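REQUEST FORM: STRUCTURE PREDICTION
Request ID: SP-0412
Submitted by: Lab K.M.
Chain count: 1
Length (residues): 133
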Amino acid sequence: MRFIDTNLFLRYFTRDDEKRAQDVLELLKRVERNEEKVITSPLVIFELVFTLESYYKVPRKEIKKLLQPILDLRGLRLDFKDLLESALELYSEQGISFTDAFNACFMQKRKIKEIYSFDEDFDKIEGIKRVIP
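STATUS: Completed
RESULT:
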């Protein structure tokens, strides 16, 4: 098993280096066919979302569309995959940061209904009450 870093996904999505993009595509095909097992971390997904949004100016809905097939790869191990998928949905629909979306999904999975926060974005999320200390 090998770890996949953020920059491989970025080359694949942005195609700013076509040779590397094709090499990554071949790797992803092997992962999908279970010919190769790989792992990545939630931080790679966070960095990927942040970089696509802030540097490459990719719209949120497009980011979700790009990442979903990666998350679905059969040979990819990724902790919190279900939470990341839920967070991508919330992030693309509610216009909140990916971090806030992940934290909201984390809370919901654990049936936590209140959050101490000054961040008003949490007011947009049904089932979560923001509490100011």
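NOTES: Residues 2-79 form one domain.
Reviewed by: T.R.
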